[in-house]
Structures are given as structure tokens and as C-alpha cells.
Design goal:
The chain is α/β, with parallel strands linked by helices. Helices cover about 45% and strands about 20% of the residues. Helix 2 packs antiparallel against helix 6 and helix 6 crosses helix 7.
Length: about 425
């Protein structure tokens, strides 16, 4: 490979990285981008048809197609035997990549399609994946000849084919990654490797435990951080399945606490809106359940979320706004959802004994909570100095490593 080719490949791959990074819409965004590439080549060369084909199981299948208005020669999903196509002959060198008029080329006239269609001008370039294999071809053609086509046109199609190959490679890698993520999540659920641990929530004045925040952990050889697990589940459409399993385990834990001690469970607004929570939590009292909604969660429809939470709150469940003080969203969550509990974010609690600004903000939120008769929990208490400061400010409840790290629930009731 000469230096110009290597440099072009590097530039195309870099551009493909940037472009693929913008395709947050998934499959639809990828398809739209590929269709735009095909359309651009057809219009630039003033051809009737352009397509990207895939070689699969001895056939050439049209994956992306753009046609001039009124021209319907091929459609997406159609295919034909690979050994009867121009594409295979271009890849193996029996036909040139640029043909100004196939009717004048004996090697092309030997193919029945040349007369049947007929084929005139034809430009076809192999699409190579980053791993080195041939995916198919990037092709454009018309039923009439065009003597104006030249090497510059062919060079342009090669660049588009290189870009298509880079995008397809990244798309296939992403699909493999999704498949791997799904497989890992399905495996850990099948092996029951998702568990809930509890971190005590303590009354800062009396020192008694009033509840436990339930936190997800993953056991086994495929252990991963819980935040990564739930992020992966969201990427591959398994958030609901993982959420349902979490609620199952939370219900088992709730049944063990009947002495007024509550358990707090984090749920996203999306999960709440998409689930039948009333059914998931059975039919009995939910006075020992707290549903935590993080400050970082985006809530597009507060009214719908309130409606979903209402049946649970009628049965005694309480709502907490988590991470208050970490950003502006928490204040809106508080005003819109009117929670029973506010949890001060760890960033506000760390070194609060040394920081008057943190103390002032905590004092304001404590006063607001008292006025509205909300409970308030200070998260992330890690030393006696922070605890003493929070006690002096009149903070009601707290949690953090100073009291206990998250621990298996079995150890809490044995």
C-alpha cells in the first residue's frame, strides 16, 4: 500500500470516528447516514441508480439504494446470485471499476444483465472492512453510457466506499458489543448474580437505625460496577428486565422489616413511567418503602410521574429526592414531586465542618425541610467532625461510611 493510500485510509477512519460518534440515534441514524452517502454519489455523477451491496451466502444483497425519480430498477433487500453480478467481477478483477459504456466492453456483454437491463455507465468499488475482508460494493450505474466519467469520478467513489467501509465496520462492532452486553446481563440474571446490599440510615440525634438504602451489587466472575451494569442495560434495552429483578429482591427484603424500619430503592423516572408499579409491589401496605429519584434523572412529564406514584403513596410508600444540592434539577424535582424525604448530596457533606458555604446551603435546605415537614438525610458522612457539624445544624438523619459500609442484607436480620 503506497503512502497516499495509507494517509487517505487514516483520514477516512478519523472522519468515520467523528461521524459515527454523532449517530446517537442507533440503527435508524446509521441507515440514514448510509443512504445519504449513496444518494450523494448518484447525484454527483448524475447516474440513475446507486447502491451499497453486501456479499452474503453466495448472493449480492442490496442494503442501501437510491434511484432517480421514476426509476425503479432495484429495491433494498433484493438480491441475486453473486457469480452472475458485476460486483463479483469487479472485486476479483475481471471487470474494471470504471466502465463508461458496458455495451462496448466484451467482458461486460458476456453477462445477460448487460442487455436485459440494459447496463450503460457503471462505477463499482469494493467496500473493505477495517479487518481486511470485503463487505460488498459501492456501485452506481445508468442504463445509458457516459463518456464524461473519468478517474476523478472513480477516485471520489473510492473515498465514499472507504467511508462506507469504516462506518459499516464500526456499526458491526457496535452490534457485536450490544450482543455481548445482552449476553452478560442475561447470564448474570440467570445465575442470580444480582444482589442488593444495605447501607444504614441513622437518626443523628439518637443514633438508632431508621432505614437502609438498597444498593445493587454483582457477584461472580463477571463482576462489574453496578453503575456500569445499569448503563449497559439501558444501551441494550434491558433496563426494564433488570429493574423488575431488582424490585423482586427488594420486595423479599421489605417483608423482613415490619418494625417501622424502611428500605429505600432507587428507580429511574423512565422505569416508573413504563411499569405497573402497583402490581409489582403486591397489594399490601408499603409504609416501609421509600422510592428514591435521583437529582440527575431527566423528568420530562412531572404530571405523569406524579400519577404513577400516587397509588403507591396512597398505600404508604414515600418518595425521596436523591442528590439534592448537586445541581439545579433537584430543586425542581422537590417543587414538582413534593417528596417525603430530601437527601443531601455527598458533595455538600464532604468537609462541611471546614466550609462555611456548605454549612450555609445545608442550613437553608434543613430549614426548608422543616417548613415543609420533609425528612432530610445527609449522605456521605465519613468522619466525626462532619457528623458533629451536621448535628449542630439540626440535621435529622444521615448515612455514610462513618456508620457502616453497604453490607449483605442477611447480616442485618440474622
Amino acid at each position: 500500500m503506497d503512502m497516499d493510500t495509507i494517509q487517505r485510509a487514516s483520514q477516512v477512519d478519523q472522519f468515520a470516528d467523528v461521524l459515527f460518534g454523532q449517530l446517537s440515534g442507533g440503527e435508524d441514524a446509521f441507515s440514514d447516514t448510509m443512504s445519504c452517502l449513496v444518494q450523494s454519489v448518484r447525484k454527483r455523477l448524475n447516474m440513475e441508480v446507486a447502491f451499497v451491496s453486501e456479499f452474503t451466502s453466495g448472493r449480492r444483497v442490496f442494503r442501501f439504494v437510491d434511484s432517480q425519480e421514476g426509476v425503479e430498477i432495484i429495491r433494498v433487500g433484493q438480491g441475486d446470485p453473486l457469480d452472475e453480478s458485476y460486483c463479483q467481477r469487479v472485486v476479483d478483477g475481471r471487470l474494471p471499476e470504471l466502465i463508461t459504456n458496458a455495451q462496448l466492453l466484451p467482458a461486460a456483454c458476456a453477462l445477460p444483465v448487460t442487455q436485459a437491463l440494459p447496463v450503460g455507465a457503471h462505477v463499482s468499488v469494493p467496500i473493505r472492512l477495517t479487518g481486511g475482508g470485503v463487505f460488498g460494493t459501492f456501485c452506481t450505474f445508468s442504463r445509458y453510457g457516459d463518456d464524461s466519467l473519468d478517474e476523478r469520478d472513480l477516485a471520489m467513489v473510492r473515498v465514499f466506499a472507504d467511508l462506507a467501509g469504516a462506518l459499516i465496520s464500526k456499526h458491526l462492532d457496535a452490534l457485536d458489543s450490544v450482543h455481548l452486553m445482552r449476553s452478560r446481563i442475561i447470564e448474570l440474571m440467570a445465575k442470580d448474580q444480582l444482589m442488593l446490599v444495605g447501607q444504614p440510615i441513622v437518626d443523628l440525634q439518637s443514633g438508632s437505625t431508621v432505614g437502609y438504602e438498597l444498593l445493587s451489587r454483582v457477584e461472580g466472575a463477571n463482576r462489574m460496577r453496578p453503575d456500569v451494569l445499569f448503563e449497559d442495560a439501558a444501551r441494550v434495552g434491558m433496563s426494564q428486565a433488570l429493574g423488575l429483578r431488582t424490585i423482586e429482591k427488594a420486595c423479599q427484603i421489605m417483608s423482613r422489616f415490619t418494625n417501622g424500619t424502611f428500605v429505600a430503592l432507587n428507580l429511574t423516572p423512565e422505569f416508573i413511567l413504563q411499569s405497573d408499579l402497583s402490581g409489582l409491589f403486591g397489594t399490601g401496605s408499603l409504609e416501609n418503602l421509600v422510592l428514591e429519584i435521583t437529582e440527575h434523572a431527566i423528568i420530562k412529564d412531572y404530571s405523569a410521574l406524579r400519577d404513577k406514584l400516587a397509588p403507591l403513596r396512597e398505600r404508604g410508600a414515600r418518595v425521596a429526592i436523591d442528590d439534592a444540592g448537586a445541581g439545579y434539577a433537584s430543586l425542581r424535582h422537590i417543587l414538582q414531586l413534593m417528596p417525603d424525604i430530601i437527601k443531601l448530596d455527598i458533595s455538600l457533606i464532604q468537609d462541611i465542618d471546614k466550609d462555611e458555604e456548605r454549612q450555609a446551603l445545608a442550613t437553608a435546605l434543613i430549614a426548608f425541610s422543616r417548613c415543609r415537614r420533609y425528612h432530610l438525610i445527609a449522605e456521605g458522612i465519613e468522619n466525626a467532625q462532619e457528623l458533629a457539624t451536621l448535628q449542630s445544624l439540626g440535621t435529622e438523619w444521615g448515612q455514610g461510611y462513618f456508620f457502616a459500609r453497604p453490607q449483605p442484607m442477611q447480616s442485618l436480620w440474622n
